[in-house]
Amino acid sequence: MSARLEMSSESVVEAAADLLTELRAEPPLVHCITNSVVTGFTANVLLALGAAPAMVDITGEAGMFAAISSGLLVNLGTPTPEQRSASLEAVGGARSAGTPWVLDPVAVGALPVRTALAQDLLALRPTLIRGNASEILALAGRSQGGRGVDALDGTEAAAGAARELARITGGAVAVSGPVDLLVDADREVRIANGDVLLTRVTGGGCALGAVMAAFLGAARKTGDSPLVAAAAATLVYTLAAEDAAARSEGPGSFAVALLDALAAIRPDALPGRARVEARDSATAGVAA
C-alpha cells in the first residue's frame, strides 16, 4: 500500500482498520523494554491484539533483538542500571536496522535519573513519543513534570510542547488524556474515545505504548506515517476500552475484559464508533 497523503478524520479511521488487518495477518514482533510493574499486562495486551511480544531488557541482547524486531518500546517506568544500558543499546540497534521505536518517558521532570536518560534518548530521535501532558511538557523543558506517573496538566496545555518535540525528532508525539492529542510537525489528530477505567488499572497507559510500537511495525508494510500509526493504535485501544468497560463492574474485571475486547475488536466495527478529529496544513477534518 502507499502512504496516505492527506490527513482527515476518515483517513485515520480507514488506516486503523487497514493496520489492524495487517497486524493480524502478519503479527509484528514487538520488543519491549518496559517497567517491572506492567511487564505481564503489556505482554498480554499485545498477545490479545494479535502481536508477538518479547521482553528483552538486558545488555548484550537488547541491541541485536531490536534490530530484528518490527517495533521497539522503551518505557522508563522503573529504569534500573541494567535497563538504562539496555535501552540505549536497543535504540542503537533499532536505528541501525530502521526499526521504529517508541519512547515513553514515564514520570520525567522531577526525578533526575530517568530525566537524564530521557534526554539522552530524545537526542536519538524516537519515531514516536508517548506520554501524559506533564511528561511531554517536562521532556520539552517546559515544566518539572507531574506527580509521579499522574499528569497535573491538561492535554491541550502540552500541544505546543508536543509540536516542538515532533519538530526536534522528525517523528510524532502522542499526549494521552481524556481526549488524546497526537501531532507531528504540521498535522494533528484528536481522539475522544476511551474510558476512565483505563486510569484505574496499572499499565493502562504503558500498554498503549506497546500497542503503538506494534502498529508502527505494521505501518512498515502499509507505508503509513508514524502519526497515522499512533492514531490508529490509539483508536483501536480506546474503542476496546469502551467495550471492556461496558461489561465490567470495576477495575479488576475491566483489566481482564480489556484483553478479551482487544482480541474481539474487528476492523469493520471502527468507523461507526470513532470520535476522531484530524487536520493538516491543507485541510481540516470533522468528526468521523
Structure description:
The chain is α/β, with parallel strands linked by helices and 288 residues long. It has a single domain, classed as Ribokinase (UDP-N-acetylmuramoyl-L-alanine:D-glutamate ligase), CATH 3.40.1190. It is built from ten helices and nine strands. It has helices at 9-25, 39-49, 62-68, 81-97, 112-122, 133-139, 159-169, 204-222, 226-246, 251-264, and strands at 29-33, 52-54, 71-75, 101-104, 128-132, 172-176, 180-183, 188-191, 276-279. Strands 2-1-3-4-5-6-7-8-9 form a nine-stranded mixed β-sheet, sandwiched between helices. A hairpin with a 4-residue loop joins β7 (180-183) and β8. α6 (133-139) packs across α7 (159-169). The two termini are 22 Å apart. The model is unreliable at 281-288 (pLDDT under 50).
Layout of strands and helices, then pairs:
Blueprint: H1 9-25, E1 29-33, H2 39-49, E2 52-54, H3 62-68, E3 71-75, H4 81-97, E4 101-104, H5 112-122, E5 128-132, H6 133-139, H7 159-169, E6 172-176, E7 180-183, E8 188-191, H8 204-222, H9 226-246, H10 251-264, E9 276-279
Parallel strand pairs: 1-2, 1-3, 3-4, 4-5, 5-6
Antiparallel strand pairs: 6-7, 7-8, 8-9
Helix pairs in contact: 1-8, 1-9, 2-8, 2-10, 3-4, 6-7, 8-9, 9-10
Number of structural domains: 1
Radius of gyration: 17 Å
Number of beta strands = 9
- Give a quick account of the main beta sheet: strands, pairing sense, barrel closure: 9 strands, mixed
